[in-house]
Amino acid sequence: MNRVRISTYRAFLALLLPVVAMVAALAQTTPAHADFRVCNATQSLVGVGIGYRAQAGWITEGWWHIEASSCKTLIEGPLSSRFYYLYAEDAERGGRWDGPINMCVAEKEFKIAGVTDCVARGFQRAGFQEYDTGEQANWMVQFTEQPATDGASTPEMNGQ
């Protein structure tokens, strides 16, 4: 009777092992979650706005409030554009991360269609920094502080 149990157990294991191997292989080939993340490596609260081209035209959105030493996902899922634009403000010390591309922002939470005539439409104009994601499915930008030559701290924006 023990031989019957042992041979049944061995047969069960022989059937189970290929299934376990297949599940493990599928788990390793599952694609990673894709998104556009922003990390705040400063010691201050940072407010972030993002701009991008959608099917309907240019869109700017904000504000995401990112605590010191933390990250937030601004766009979930695979990225649909190659170029994204960021503008951010240090909520505690008044610095900002900006760039040469003008887009619209608002005082409070916003989602604005179009990037022209910002002031005439009741918005503010801000300079956004361009990020070329190279059509990758996900992207991460990290805000850091770069010491200036006079000892003051100047924000720096790095993309990856």
Strand content: over 45%
| Overall strand count | 11
Shape: globular
Overall pLDDT confidence: 78
CATH fold assignment of the largest domain: Immunoglobulin-like
Q: What's the N-to-C terminus distance?
A: 63 Å
Weakly predicted, low-confidence segments: 11-31, 147-156
The top-level CATH class of the largest domain is: Mainly Beta
Give the class from helix and strand content and strand pairing: alpha+beta
- Count the domains: 2
Order of helices and strands: HEEEEEEEEEEE
Radius of gyration, taken over Cα atoms and rounded to an integer in Å: 24 Å
SSE order and pairing:
Blueprint: H1 2-29, E1 35-40, E2 46-54, E3 57-66, E4 70-76, E5 83-90, E6 96-97, E7 101-105, E8 110-113, E9 124-132, E10 139-147, E11 153-159
Parallel strand pairs: 1-10
Antiparallel strand pairs: 1-4, 2-3, 2-5, 3-8, 5-6, 5-9, 7-9, 10-11
Task: Describe the fold and architecture.
InterPro entries: DUF1036. This protein is an alpha+beta fold and 160 residues long. 18% of the residues lie in helices and 48% in strands. The protein contains one helix and eleven strands, in the order αβββββββββββ. It has one helix spanning 2-29; strands at 35-40, 46-54, 57-66, 70-76, 83-90, 96-97, 101-105, 110-113, 124-132, 139-147, 153-159. A hairpin with a 5-residue loop joins strand 10 (139-147) and strand 11. The longest helix is centred in the N-terminal third of the chain and has 28 residues, at 2-29. 21% of the residues are buried. Mean pLDDT is 78; it is low at 11-31 and 147-156.
